[in-house]
Structures are given as structure tokens and as C-alpha cells.
């Protein structure tokens, strides 16, 4: 996409017979299509729920993510995992300067991820998007903060007549003076998704590119993982895509079996099998995609969208 840097965004863009609008406020960046919200990225720090540990505050996440008709597909701050934030990412089991750091589990008070600034809006004949800078911050003794990773997050949005299609590219650079060591662990790092609170064992399920479902998808490799369930606008499907250029692609999944009454969670994990070290000055990139449809979509349609995303 052609990048256009702006100070305050309120940009409309006609694309593929749909009118996109991107609007920035001090709190958020919202992308809509023909008046329906596609997604909202949160710049401002989202406070912890009333009565919860203040450590759960966080910025730099997407909620809601919506189907084409506006059905909400994400959940934030569920009671079982107050650090789950719709569509987001963070490294989990890390070591920095000899100390454990967890950018995901906020209650540990060893790290966080936060929005720093907006880099600009991007647009082309097919869609619209934005770029932001995020910081992955380690907390040391005395709550001293060190920015370990400086990240550019590029989010692009287009519509193909049936689905909202989103690209989600993370470019992270170690700007500290010591390596960030990422242990092999069952979750963290890659794109993560938490479904809406109404999704349960009785009304939702998973489907992966390998034909796996809720009961057998965890720790398996997949090009894509789709999830479906009801919204206030009817049934909808959301799929996460792993790009073949990513580390350890097709990456392993973290999904939930029957935990939490069938609540839906999905995470592509670049380090589930092998550790990784990001050295000072080193840059890494991870590319993911998201597709959202109204209704329940079959594997062939999802595979077609993945192939387009992957350039196959």
C-alpha cells in the first residue's frame, strides 16, 4: 500500500465498490465500510475492570473486530482471562538481562505492550489501513522501564464482496543493549484472538486447514484456523491466516478444547516448538491475515482466501 503520513486522520476512500473510512481520535483508530465498523484499534490505555488489579491496563489492541454486517467477533477482559484483548499479540516466557519478562500476562508486572504513536494511513485502489508504533516494555527493579522491542504494526483492510479481509504485519526491532530470549512455550508471540463472550461449547467450533476441530487442534500445525459462532447479527466466521514466510510456518496453534465452557481462543505460536533469540539491533517480521464473513463458511472458501493472502 502507498503510505501517507497524516497528523489527524479522517479519511474516506472508495474501493472495490465499497466506501471505507478511517477516523482517528486521541483514544482510537476506527476503520468502517459503508458505515459499518470493521475494526477499532485502541491507542489509549484501556483501564483494568473495576476492582481488578490495575496492572491489567493495556493499549495497542483491536476490539471490536466485526463481520461485514457489523456482528462483533471479539471479546475483551473476560473474567477468566482479564489480559485477553480481542485481537492482539505479545511474547510470554522471555528472559531479558537475566530476568524473567512476560509481556502477555500483565498481572506478573514484568512487562507490557503499549501504543506509542501513529505513523500514518495507507490507501490503494483495493482498501485502506494504518501503521502505528508500539513498544514492548520490560519492568525491572524499582519499576524501571526498558523498551526492549520497538514495533511497527501495519494493519490493512479491504472487502471482497463477501468478507472483511485484514492484513496484520508486525515488524519488531530489539532496541535494547541485551538479547531478548524467547523460550519454547505453548502460547504467545503471534497473532491472538479471543471470541465474544456468547461463544460456548454448544454454539461454536473451530476448523483448521488440516480439518482439525475444537477437540484436536491444539498444538497442531495449520495454514489457517477458522472459528464460528453467533453474533447479534446472526452466525459469523472469522479465520486467522499464517503467512508461509513466517518463522516455523505453518506455525503451531494454541486453541482451547473444553476449557471455560467452550470459550474460543486461538493463537499462532512461532516458538511453541523451538526457542528464539532476538539480538540487539535485530529486526524480525511476522505476517498474519484475518478474514471475517457473515454466516458459516466452508473450508474451500477459507482456503481460497488463504491462498490469495499467501500469494499461492
Please characterize this protein's 3D structure:
This protein is mainly β and 312 residues long. It has one domain (2-310): Distorted Sandwich (Beta-galactosidase, Chain A, domain 5), CATH 2.70.98. 4% of the residues lie in helices and 47% in strands. The strands form 4 sheets. It has a 9-stranded antiparallel β-sheet, with helices on one face. It starts with a strand and ends with a helix.
How many domains would you count in the coordinates?
A: 1
Number of strands: 22
| CATH topology name | Beta-galactosidase, Chain A, domain 5
Pairing-aware structural class of the strands and helices?
A: mainly beta
First and last CA, distance: 19 Å
Portion of residues in beta strands equals over 45%
SSE sequence, one letter per element: EEEEEEEEEEEEEEEEEEEEEEH
Q: What is the annotated CATH architecture? A: Distorted Sandwich
Largest sheet, in brief, is:
9 strands, antiparallel
Q: Helicity range of the residues?
A: under 10%
Number of helices: 1
Shape: globular
Lateral strand order in the biggest sheet: 1-10-11-12-13-22-18-17-16
Poorly predicted parts: 1-9
Rounded to an integer, what's the Rg over CA atoms?
A: 18 Å
User: What CATH first level would be assigned?
Assistant: Mainly Beta
Write down the overall mean pLDDT: 94
Amino acid at each position: 500500500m502507498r503510505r501517507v503520513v497524516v497528523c489527524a486522520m479522517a479519511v474516506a476512500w472508495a474501493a472495490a465498490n465499497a466506501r471505507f473510512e478511517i477516523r482517528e481520535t486521541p483514544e482510537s483508530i476506527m476503520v468502517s465500510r459503508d458505515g459499518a465498523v470493521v475494526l477499532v484499534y485502541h491507542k489509549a490505555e484501556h483501564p483494568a475492570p473495576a476492582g481488578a488489579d490495575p496492572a491489567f491496563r493495556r493499549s495497542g489492541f483491536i476490539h471490536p473486530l466485526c463481520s461485514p454486517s457489523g456482528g462483533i467477533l471479539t471479546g475483551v477482559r473476560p473474567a477468566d482471562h482479564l489480559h485477553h484483548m480481542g485481537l492482539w499479540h505479545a511474547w510470554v516466557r522471555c528472559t531479558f538481562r537475566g530476568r524473567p519478562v512476560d509481556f502477555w500476562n500483565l498481572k506478573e508486572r514484568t512487562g507490557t505492550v503499549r501504543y506509542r504513536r501513529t505513523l500514518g494511513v495507507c490507501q490503494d485502489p483495493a482498501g485502506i489501513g494504518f501503521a502505528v508504533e508500539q513498544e514492548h516494555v520490560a519492568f525491572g527493579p524499582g519499576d524501571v522501564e526498558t523498551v526492549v522491542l520497538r514495533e511497527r504494526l501495519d494493519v490493512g483492510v479491504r472487502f471482497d464482496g463477501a468478507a472483511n479481509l485484514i492484513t496484520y504485519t508486525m515488524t519488531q526491532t530489539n532496541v535494547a543493549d541485551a538479547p531478548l530470549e524467547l523460550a519454547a512455550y505453548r502460547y504467545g508471540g503471534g497473532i491472538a484472538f479471543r471470541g465474544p463472550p456468547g461463544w460456548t461449547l454448544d454454539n461454536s467450533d473451530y476448523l483448521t486447514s488440516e480439518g482439525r476441530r475444537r477437540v484436536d487442534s491444539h498444538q497442531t500445525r495449520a495454514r489457517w484456523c477458522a472459528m464460528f459462532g453467533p453474533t447479534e447479527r446472526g452466525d459469523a466466521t472469522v479465520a486467522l491466516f499464517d503467512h508461509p514466510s513466517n518463522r516455523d510456518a505453518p506455525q503451531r496453534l494454541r486453541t482451547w478444547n473444553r476449557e471455560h465452557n467452550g470459550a474460543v481462543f486461538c493463537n499462532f505460536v512461532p516458538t511453541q516448538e523451538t526457542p528464539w533469540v532476538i539480538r540487539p539491533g535485530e529486526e524480525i517480521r511476522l505476517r498474519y491475515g484475518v478474514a471475517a464473513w457473515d454466516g458459516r463458511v466452508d473450508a474451500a472458501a477459507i482456503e481460497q482466501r488463504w491462498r490469495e493472502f499467501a500469494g499461492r
